[in-house]
Amino acid sequence: MAEQLKDLADDRALLGRTSTAERVSDILRSRIAEGYFPPGTRLSEDSIGGALGVSRNTLREAFRLLTHERLLVHELNRGVFVRVLTVEDVEDIYRTRRLVECAVVRGLGDPPHPLDGLASAVEEGQAAAREGDWKGVGTANIHFHRELVALSGSERTAELMRSVFAELRLAFHVVDEPQRLHEPYIARNVAILQALQEGDPAQAERLLAGYLDDSLRRVVEVYRRRVGDDG
What we know:
single chain; 231 residues; three-stranded antiparallel β-sheet
């Protein structure tokens, strides 16, 4: 936790002079999505408030917002914890992803499309894989899908999916087989990017739909076993 709090303190500059619960929740959501706070982690008001330099009331409001997004859970007389997802949660996350991400690709107009963000996420994943940083590959993979959603040009859609991708990271933590989980999708991200670069969104959608279906099966298989073992 000490390392996470040190990194969190670096985020204080993002708050500016007019810190708000929304900005704090944005920071914590991003940190959850990047894997800094695993499921089941108790979030200390004093430690996090001190790291960010915000009041207890501001932090509690941020916690409330993230609880509403199903990223945190408040346990009476125990505190606030990063949520541990159920198998049903994981299935619903992928159902949402398939509905939204495939619709974004299907709805793309005529090329060219702004694909620099997607290309950067692909390069990020390939670089992390070369270094054997499989957690970093997972983060790059989430960045890839976030950039894919951004092609919609809809801030509402992007906002919806930010919390979905943060929840997805919670599932990845429980699976805890990062190389087996993420390595196959490096090449599949490249294939989706190439289809879009070639002006073939229909092919990109087919690749994406198969990608998400395969990922769901893999994650649920391991997740169900891990949750069962923990029980």
